[in-house]
Amino acid sequence: MPLHSFEFILFLSLVFILYWSLFKNSARAQNTLLTAASLFFYGWADWRFLSLLVFSVLFNFYTGKAIRRSATKTRQYLLYLGLAVNIGILFYFKYFHFFYGSFLRFFNGYEPDARYGALNIILPLGISFFTFQAIGYLVDLYKEEMEPAPGLLSFATYMTYFPKMTAGPIERAENFLPRIAVRREFNRTRTVDGLRQILWGSFTKLVIANNCATFTTPVFDNYDHLSGSTLLLGAFFYLFQVYCDFSGYSNIAIGISKLFGIDLMRNFAAPFFSTNIRDYWKKWHISLSSWMMHYVFTPISFTLRRYHKTGLILSIIITFLVIGLWHGANWTFILFGLLHGLYFIPLILASKPISRTTSGQNPASAPAKKAHPGPSPRQGLQMLGLFILVMLTLIVFGADSVSQAIHYIGRLFSPSLFSKPSFPVEQGIGGTKTLLTILFILALMTVEWIQKNKNHEMQIDDIKHPALRIGIYYTLILAILLFGSVVHIYFMYAQF
Fold first, then answer.
1. Quick check: 237 and 421 in contact, CB under 8 A?
2. Exposure letters 186-220 (e unless 16+ CB within 10 A, then b)
3. Distance from C-alpha of 184 to C-alpha of 294, rounded to nearest angstrom
4. Which of these is catalytic: 285, 294, 327, 456?
5. How far apart are CA 390 and CA 343, in angstroms?
6. Known active-site residue 4
7. Which of 121, 131, 290, 406 lies at 20 to 30 Å from 420 by C-alpha?
8. Per-residue pLDDT tens over the stretch 163-222
C-alpha cells in the first residue's frame, strides 16, 4: 500500500476519522485502533509475514518482562536469548542468501541457481526497523534505563505503528511509550503542521526524487557507454534521489503521525550544509545513526578505550561497517559503510570530540542561530568537499557490485569528464527536463538553508500573511501535479 496510492489515502482518512470520533475517549481506545490499523496495513503488504510481526511483538514483550523480573545472571541469559532470536530472524531473511551465495562462489566457483540450490527468501516489510526497535528495548531494560511497557497493547502500538513501519524513524521505546501512555487530544495547529510536512515530503519524493530516478536508472544501467560528464551528472542526481526519497518518506511519516497527536523524532536536518563528516551523520538518518552510536559504538569504544585513538578508529569503522550492512546484503553496502568510517580518521587524529558524533540530539532543538544569507567561503569549500565525498560513496551504494562501482568511478574521472553530458533520449529525458530537475534541487537547497534552524522545512507559522502561506501550498501542489512522477512510487528504504 504505497503512501501515495488511492488505497492508502482512503485507509488514512478512515483511521483519522475513527481516531478522533469513536476512539478519542481514552489512550487505550486510541492505541487499540492504531494497533489494529497497523496490523491491517502490514498484512495488506504481505499477509504471510503478519505472523512474524505478531511473534516479534509477543516474544519481545514477554522477554522484556522476564528480564526486569529476573536475577542478574538470568537476566543476562534472557538478554542473550532475545538478541539471538531477533538477530537470527533478521539474519535469515536479510543476509542468509548473501552469505550462502558468497560461500558457493568462493569455495565452489559457481553462482547459486536452481541447479545448485538458489534460495528465494522474501524480505519482510520493515524488518530492519522493527527488529532494531525490539533490540533497543531489550537492551534498555537490561541496563535499567527504562521501565517495561505498561502493557502488551502499548508495546504492540510501539512495534507496529504504521507511519514508521515501512522505513522508520527508528524510535527508542523510552521516548515513544510515554507519548502514547496518555490520551491525545485533537489539536488543529499540530494537524495543520503535519499536513504541511506531508505536502513537503510528497513534493521532494514525487517531483525531485522520482525525476532524478528517470535519469539515474539508465545512467547506472549503461555507465560503461557514457561520458564522464554524464556519469557525474548521474551521480549528482542519484545523491538527491536517495536523499529526497528517504527524507521525503520521513517527512510524510512524521506528518502523518502528527495527525494522530504523536511526535516522531526528526530523521534529516539539512545534511548537505555540514562541513565535516561528523556533522553530516548528526543530520543524515538521525534515528539510525543515533541508535548505532548508543548500542554499537558506545559499548565497543568502551571495550577498546585502552587503545586510545586506535581503539576509537576501530570502534568507528566497526560501527559504520554495521551501518553499511544494515542497508542490505551486498558488498557494496559494506564498502559504503567502510568508506564513511574511514572519513572519520582525520577528525579522530585531529582530536575532535568524536564521542559525540551522533548523540541523537535533534539539531533543531539547539538554540536558534542568527540566519546568514549564505555560508562563508571557507564553509562553502568544506561543504563542497564533503558533498563530493558523500556523492562518491553513493555511487558505491547504488551500484550492483563493487566492480561496477569501481568501473563507474574510473570512467567518471576520465578525459570525457570535461565533455558535454548526453541524455538517454529513449527514456524521454532531455536537456529541458534535466535543467528543470536541477532548478527544483536548487529550490530545495534554498528552502533548507532558510529553514535550517526549524523543525522541518514547512514550519512557516512565522509567515503572518495567510495569502503568502496559501501561495506556498498551491505552488507545491501545482509542482506535484505538473512535474510529479509516479513511475517510482515505492520508497527506496522500504527494501531495507
1. no
2. eeeebbebbbbbbbbbbbbbbbbbbbbbbbbbbbb
3. 30
4. 327
5. 10
6. no
7. 406
8. 998 887 999 999 999 999 999 999 999 999 999 999 999 999 999 999 999 889 889 988
